[in-house]
Amino acid sequence: MSLEREEPSHFGAGPAQLPTCVLQQAAKDLVNYKNLGLGIGEISHRSKDATQVIEDGKRHLRELMDIPDTHEVFFMQGGGTTGFSSLGTNLLRGYVGKTGRVGTCGYLVTGSWSEKAFEEAQRLRLPAEVVFDSREFDTEKKFGSIPEESQWSARVQGKKYAYVYLCENETVHGVEWPQLPRCLVEDDDVELVADLSSDILSREIDVSQYGVIMAGAQKNIGLAGLTVYIIKKSILKNIAAADEEILNELGIPVTPIAFDYPTVVKNNSAYNTIPIFTLHVMDLVFQHLLKKGGLPQQTIENKQKAKLLYEALDAYPEFYRLPVAKNCRSSMNVVFTLVDSSLDDQFLKDAAAQRLTGLKGHRSVGGFRASLYNALTVATVERLVQFVKAFAEEHK
Amino acid sequence: MSLEREEPSHFGAGPAQLPTCVLQQAAKDLVNYKNLGLGIGEISHRSKDATQVIEDGKRHLRELMDIPDTHEVFFMQGGGTTGFSSLGTNLLRGYVGKTGRVGTCGYLVTGSWSEKAFEEAQRLRLPAEVVFDSREFDTEKKFGSIPEESQWSARVQGKKYAYVYLCENETVHGVEWPQLPRCLVEDDDVELVADLSSDILSREIDVSQYGVIMAGAQKNIGLAGLTVYIIKKSILKNIAAADEEILNELGIPVTPIAFDYPTVVKNNSAYNTIPIFTLHVMDLVFQHLLKKGGLPQQTIENKQKAKLLYEALDAYPEFYRLPVAKNCRSSMNVVFTLVDSSLDDQFLKDAAAQRLTGLKGHRSVGGFRASLYNALTVATVERLVQFVKAFAEEHK
After folding, report:
1. Using only C-alpha atoms, what is the Rg of chain B?
2. Which pathway does this chain act in (chains A, B) (predicted)?
3. At the topology level of CATH, where does B41-289 sit?
4. What is the CATH number assigned to the segment(s) B294-395?
5. For residue B158, how many other CB atoms are within 10 A of its CB?
């Protein structure tokens, strides 16, 4: 059976294209792993080989992201939704463990994912509030910009936040935080909790600035089904130290056991049967990235890819429209529309004819979205750039 | 790259051996699905192809299990733990939706998995109680038997149960319900909720008798990472109909959105990004089972396998000890010990020399466990039987 394929050029927002060499190795290991005579998905999650996959995954991620000893790495089932759905109760417990009182859950809303995260916190009856919603400051009252810090930083002063949450890259709206807000990073009393589902491993970051990093795998990391966590060890200690009776009195909901951070960490991510095949694919991606030069190299490539595409689109302002403010344009999800939307179908059809797929925008936003995740090479993006230019030249 | 392997003979309790032909097809589809030029794990979970996988999975499971129209099928991320962790709040809501008042969550405890499920309900502060713990009735006060219904059925009479939970096959202790308790099946006011993680698809069952069937995939169904649900549509309606204010007043915790049954069903199992590769493997297993004759055929094979092994072990009562009562011996997980435990290491070593692996008992029970899931052929079990006999003959 052949495991060959032509290099894809799929710009879907996720689950996303993965490196072909990773999938080929994973396919082999699915049937027979290390000549065990069994596939990697057919062994106990507590076996030596499975434990090694977990350890390798943690170690390679640490190496890739230069994760300091102050932070723990673990994995849980689920995606971003499961992620933001369980972090509130964990972090609230941590705050109670640290201070003996309940704090507020603050949300910086800059697109549909941070909005969903806030709505879920409300739904779970947590003491949640929106610190700011970028639509308040936007001239069109839409998602597509991030206000200057000076416009909202006063709102967090003196507040007792259990944590402040943000989504670093809004996949649907193509809005990415250019840098973490200084007022939060520099405030030792606030734990910054960030959803990095669609920009993790896309560039070098300073992990020490985050209280918690949560990232679904299905963009830059691997297949859907797993979420990566990087968390300050001090937060884990605080969660474990929280007094159950106080928590009960304060009415903080109990986190389901499979998502209780201390339980998961204590069991080396294998409390709930971890999908070990999915984790192995993740580790193969980590190894692949390390081999090609790690995040310094990936940062260069991703900057180049985004620059090429944004420049091409910007070159035809009468033809393409870019709804996101320049200072927070996503390097992962390039959102654009055609001024003449009657050409939308033609655009997709002509692109598909050149094997350029996955370009349709999210149903809530419309238009187009080209996701430039790690597995998309510069050469592949150059093919898209040529198409974008040619299409504009032909129809302008 | 070769996708060949010798037929494995791995008796691990799960994640378990899968049919080789299924894994070979899955490996190919991981790299290039239906000549799309992309793997099945690299496409949007809302794309046409992914939706088809979801629909196929539902349809084939319906066909296999002869699921009546009164019941809905859906999939969620996670395993058994995530499953029992989220079903209590869902079912309690359903009970409130139906009756306007809160009910009790009853648990029939027959092994470590039903015990864990009860403990989690308590931990989540649900109004949970143990209907019976089989250890009360056991002469050695251990798990290994299921009391006659007459010994406990009076306890459920007149009670207002939101649901009664049981684990149909206790994987760790090798205890399987020989049939569902009549007093619950025949009581229209009680919803029977059953964990079928380790015996689903092992034999024909009457789905109409269950309120909810929940089953982690990693035994008879596929890779770890997904859980199958079969639920009465009336329960779904009741959950959706429950009044939020009443729920809040009654102090019933909110189910995290990714595990809220009506939300998941409304979004065709794709609310939280469903691991579509894992689902595809599941569907390939369903198709494989249908092709070889469905559950009637599988029932015959599994009966034969269990009979062969239990008979071989029973033939050496001075050598092998079987801790489980005959009337509730599991056909999936055959638990046994050596009378002379100093031979334990030798047993495992000699077995491994014949490629008979995964036989070590669960760490909480010790001894040995041979799991005879669907992917283990009669011929493979015959090899184990020969070994068991020869080992006894050599060392008795």
Report:
1. 22
2. Amino-acid biosynthesis; L-serine biosynthesis; L-serine from 3-phospho-D-glycerate: step 2/3
3. Aspartate Aminotransferase; domain 2 (3.40.640)
4. 3.90.1150.10
5. 6
